[in-house]
Amino acid sequence: MAGAGNSMVGSILLFTVVLLLQEVYRGKLASSEMLTILGGFTSSLLFFIGNFQESSSLKSSWGTGNDSCGNDSTVHRVCITTCFLFSAGLLYEMNKISGYMLSKADSKSRRQ
């Protein structure tokens, strides 16, 4: 399993690459409705990556999930709304997966 330092470096690199690609293609993302929705989805991925980074044992205030939807304001105002919607969906699904994994671990510990 990867250590906390490796996970943090990986998440910082992934966050930076996705953010830079979003800023480079800012004009293209704002050019049509579907690409605007894609811009919101990429920012929700930034939200997810930022939260993953913050949940590792090495805490930093760089790249928090809250910054990701704020970066959408440089692309298009609809991107902010879609970012919040996609982020809420991602959080809901991650909560379901976490609850499933936790209940699975509890049932294994009860058997022993």
UniProtKB/TrEMBL annotation:
It is found in: Membrane. The keyword RNA-binding does not apply. It is a multi-pass membrane protein. Keywords: Membrane, Transmembrane, Transmembrane helix. The chain crosses the membrane at residues 6-22, 34-53, 73-92. GO terms for cellular component: membrane. InterPro entries: KRTCAP2. Belongs to the KRTCAP2 family. This is Uncharacterized protein. Pfam families: Keratin_assoc (PF09775). It comes from the Eukaryota. It comes from Arabis alpina (Alpine rock-cress).
